[in-house]
Amino acid sequence: MRPLVVLVALSMAVMMPSAASAAGRVAFVAGNGAYKKAAQLPNAPISAKAMAALLQDAGFDVMQAIDLTRDEMIQRLLEFGKKSQGAELAVFYYAGLGFTVGGAEYLVPVDADINAEADVDLGAAIDIAATVDQTLGDVKVRLIFLDANRDNPFVTKLRRSEPAPRSGLAAMKPGSPDTLIGYATGPGQTAPDGPQGTIRPFTRALIANITAPGVEIQQAMVRVRAQVNEETKRSQLPWGHSNIVGMLYLRP
Fold first, then answer.
1. CB 3.0–4.6 Å: which of 20, 119, 211, 212 could bond 13 by disulfide?
2. What is the tens place of the pLDDT at every residue in 209-236?
3. Is 106 helix (H, G, I), strand (E, B) or coil?
């Protein structure tokens, strides 16, 4: 998408949310915390709900999903794939447990019971790259925020011959033009859930910056990194990739 088209489309979505948001701006916001076979993450659903509210206020048609089982997650993702077809801008946000196996990144449903690598291969966890390609393949501009880097509770059961990060998520690079990916922390690193009852640091920084009036999205991500780094006393530094061409404003 050319920069002028991005600006015109997003400006229209802000000025006429009732008419333009459904077709122009869509978002999938998920927070998984009530895990049955792993430590619970009570702040993941809290963070997701706060992000959903922010995006709704910015004119997005938001699909919110909290504490999903595998079947529920797949169903909601299929629904979102239909909703996002032809959209000018889509946000995919996830808070919860995520890990890397064999170089691939996975999101973990609350009912995941992973006892061997075969469980992952057979779909006990959700492949992020495949999910993004299938649900957002027809979207012009894509923003992906993954507040999912955390210690892998299944690490002792997942042993592949090739070396790969076992904690947190690896670095998934944009596979399509006009895509930005933001991680809670660097490749192979972890980000704790934080004090119970609070919004996670990465999500809190996203909320404070990405819809600030007149702030371009890549400039906003610089601010996000600085805020999280300072707030966590340099123990957590967000990471990301972007191949967005032109200037993108969520709130011009």
1. 20
2. 999 999 999 999 999 999 999 999 999 9
3. strand
